[in-house]
Amino acid sequence: MKTSSDSAVSARLTNAVANGERGDDVGVILDALRSIVRELRLASREAEQRVGVHGAQLHALRRLSDSPATSLTELAERTHTDISSVSVVVGRLVEQGLVARKSADDDRRRLSLGLTARGRAVLRRAPETGTSRLLRAAAHLGDREVHALATGLSRLVDGMDGKDD
């Protein structure tokens, strides 16, 4: 879903890097974050309209299609999501009959999560998630770029005071 706005962000980034101007860099950061949020929102809306589940639910279904999960913790790790969020997502998927929870065969105390036939049918009709596109794009970055991006974004989030401007 690349738009002309995304191309403008890319051009702005190229110019900011070439000029080495901090103000331009901050603008690029804001534009890039807006583009990412917009992409995730549009992809989620498309999934909801097409198959009745939002982006986070679809991402969890895709990870479960790779293989069943032996716990919520495992699925949280595979989706790069915190456990409380994945718990809510799985709860909704179970309610919709897309995911089945059952006791693990080898240990009745453990939970096993897997797709139902209905969940597999939804996936066959589902569009690619925004998260998948984001992860694919990140895979094209070098290790140093990924580390710098992770560090910078973490520091940016840590520095936010939560006040509206």
Walkthrough of the structure:
The protein is mainly alpha-helical and 165 residues long. The protein has a domain at 52-127: Arc Repressor Mutant, subunit A (Orthogonal Bundle). The protein contains 8 helices and 2 strands, in the order H-H-H-H-H-E-E-H-H-H. It has a two-stranded antiparallel sheet. A hairpin with a 7-residue loop joins strand 1 and strand 2. The two termini are 30 Å apart. The mean pLDDT is 85.
Quick description:
With 165 residues, the protein is mainly alpha-helical. Helices cover 70% and strands 6% of the residues.
What is the secondary structure topology, with strand pairs?
Elements: H1 4-19, H2 22-51, H3 55-66, H4 72-79, H5 83-95, E1 99-103, E2 111-115, H6 117-125, H7 130-139, H8 143-159
Antiparallel strand pairs: 1-2
Helix pairs in contact: 1-2, 3-5, 4-5
